[in-house]
Specification:
about 475 residues; alpha/beta; Jelly Rolls; 22 strands; about 25% strand
Amino acid sequence: MRDRKHFMLACGGLWSIMLLAQGALADDFHWKLRSQRAQADAAGGFRQVVAEESWPAAETAFIVCDVWDKHHCLNAVRRLEEFAPRMNAVLTAARERGATIIHAPSDCMPAYAEHPARKRAIAAPAAASKPRDVEFWCSRIPQEEAATYPLDQSDGGEDDDPAEHAEWAAKLVALGRNPGMPWKTQSPLIEIDADRDYISDRGDEVWNVLAARRIQNVVLVGVHLNMCVLGRPFGLRQMARGGKRVALMRDMTDCMYNPARWPFVDHFTGNDRMIAHVERFVGPTISSDQLLGGQEFRSKYDRRTGNEPAVAKPGTHPDWWPVELAESKTLQVDWAKAYRGPMWYRCVVRLPSDWLARNPLQLQLTLGGSLRVWLNGREATKTKLAEVNRYTYEFDADAVNVDDANLLVMRVEIPGGLVQSPEPPVLVSGSRELPLKGRWQMRLGDDPKWSNIPLPAKFGGSTDAYFEPR
């Protein structure tokens, strides 16, 4: 016991020496933090504002999100490899000022098992306190609850030419890579300082590093903004929810967005819409020129002239419409005059392990007509309860992504095209209930493919149709 106490004291002393040594090189970062505030008479309902702040470098960390060596989308690879050298220059300049650099290439930790930066992250002392669920993906924070999500990414966001994509997938297979998840390491275009940096893709480990280094400010760089940069356990949402002063470097990121999907704008306008969402509901943004000088980075693939629409083309709408399922109008949409046939509803639900406990997961609702229900593409088993028109749908246990996002889809068909239910659907697990009252997505027509999306809900689901137990 005495040896363990001496060991812990020695570790604490080493961390103190490291803090003093690296802090001696520190300098302030002077940022122009851009955000957007709600204003009724402004274009789009928001006004852009800029606040100047100085962040002590010794209290600032840069997190490099998922800058992988390979990706399943060829265009995503092209865009990343174009701005990665400038990102590396950003990290070099930040490191020289005394900032902490954390490399977070998700799913790649085996490649770094013996790397000093990986061992350094693992050795960081456990933080005295951590945010709730910091180990898990974060699909939404409270500030986003009233927001309309700006992109449809449910197809995965790939924007490759089909022939090029097939050729790229074949090349990945020839390299011995899984064409769906080909990454194994961080991109070699990003240098890792073995003597100073950290490597981790775990939210709790990253939080330990931030606590040990006394980090108050976090800058996110990397890809992809609408998925990993926002949602990872070390991403923008978790940092903001945990109370850190967080900023996105907006010209050192990219989105997974396909212009063939709503809002039917070019890829870089899609990026701008996503950046605006961050500035409105998550945190401010900065740009690389504020550290390196010159101009903000602009991709050679960005061929906009300034005349393109920043919003959906007139007369267009998402394939899946937003619909509010509130107590006063739950599942009640009268399309009798315009449409007769099935309606599809979907949302995303996060189901924590302690909420599920040992009981099966069920969906219960009162509804006449024909109804089918899927969770993550797996159809539920239907059972009629004692009450008139009261049904329960039970899900297989292995269909549930525990402590993660799940895609819930319902297909409803009632003669006459009128859908009515006196109360919202409810997810039930033992004595626990989660009323699904709020915003869903709805689509008219009929296609069996709509029961699922081609990637996990945490990547393709929309945060404006999201539920979780409080």
